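Form P-L/3: holo structure prediction, ligand zinc ion.
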Amino acid sequence: MSGQIAYRAGLHELGDGIFAYLQPDGGWGWSNAGLVTADDTSLLIDTLFDLNLTRAMLDSMRPITESSPIGQAMNTHGDGDHWYGNQLLPDGIPIVATASAIEEMRAAPPRLLDATVNQLELGPEFEQFVSRTMRRFDFQSISERLPNESFEGTREMSIGMRRADLIELGPAHTAGDAIVHIPDAGVLFTGDLLFIEGTPIIWEGPVSNWLAACDSIIDLGAEVLVPGHGPVTDESGVADVQRYLRHVRDEPPRASRPGWTRRRQPMTSTSPTSSIGPRGADRRQRRGDLPRARPVPAGPDGAGIGSADGRWDVTH
Ligand SMILES: [Zn+2]
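OUTPUT (holo model):
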């Protein structure tokens, strides 16, 4: 079914009362979300990076949510492009995330990102990047609304008579990654454990955990996978991400190889990097998601290698 879902901006019905909201091109901050309906109620999976985007998404869902109002929501992880729009959710509904994700949300609220991209002296290279990517979004008008329910491990949610399984698979992309499986429909919302046609970013790692998370995703046997960024996919999309992650794990750091030098260059450069990535995405230097205020540790199995700093600094 995934091949039948066009990668166009907006709401797409996946079948049987389940919808994906897609934001091409899936780069920095252009995340996907989901809506699962049953028995006159809905579960929203993730909000968007700012209020304008989230408002447009909720408006597009209105024909559905008028008869099946959003009665609960969940945020797949702690990156702002998956929760900063929570302010626009109906008052008083449960908003669920993993405890680790909520911890990360507290550490990186919208006002911090606003200050980082709009008030700090960033230097010419990062300034150029931020200007091209992050300043498209309005962080200033957001009032932080954190999830009000947390879980660890797994949690079952009921949408009317329909079951949704929330499964924590982090730390991988972030410390608190979770997915949402709708078993009766064979649909899985993976959050940013899948970047399709874009480079996965390793904020937390280790890579081995992320590879194991991909195995867990495949084991669920869902036919339709909605990634956190990029087009709707199937098991082949998971294989693409795994191939990239194995490359990151197995390749020695470029800077330590003969013939490679370190020099500062913006990550928007068109200089060649690895050709191995989900559908060659590395070559296009496409990035999803947002930078973190905290440092990313580099571990022996690749944790941190995909961080903004590492990619930014090391070029051929
Ligand atoms: Zn993310």
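COMMENT: Residues 77, 79, 173, 192, 228, 289 surround zinc ion (CB under 6 Å).
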